[in-house]
Amino acid sequence: MVSHRSTKGASKARRDHINHEIRNMRSLLPISQEDQERMSYLHSMAAICTYIRKSVLFQGEFCKLIAS
User: Fold this and answer.
1) Which positions, given as ranges, span the membrane (predicted)?
2) Portion of the chain with pLDDT greater than 70, in percent
């Protein structure tokens, strides 16, 4: 007899974990708590990625200035 285990619980656990991590990263953004709470998860991820890219870019520019 083949047992078919439901993956519904595992899928929900994964989604909950992803949403928790997005909330954690969103809390690190330099924006007000009110603005953070209004952001969807999609907008949060876009803002987080933009913030990381800019941080890396400006850090590289800062390192070039120090090396000069």
Assistant:
1) none
2) 79
Residue 13 domain flag: yes
Provide φ and ψ at 54, rounded to 5°: -65, -40
How many CB atoms lie under 10 A from the CB of residue 26? 19
Selected residue with higher pLDDT from 56 and 47: 47
Report d(CA 54, CA 30) in Å as an integer. 13
What whole-number distance in Å separates Cα of residue 14 and Cα of residue 3?
22
Which run of H or E residues covers position 64?
helix 41-67
**What residues make up the domain containing 25?**
9-67
Count of structural domains within the chain: 1
pLDDT of residue 7: 82
Does 1 map to a domain?
no
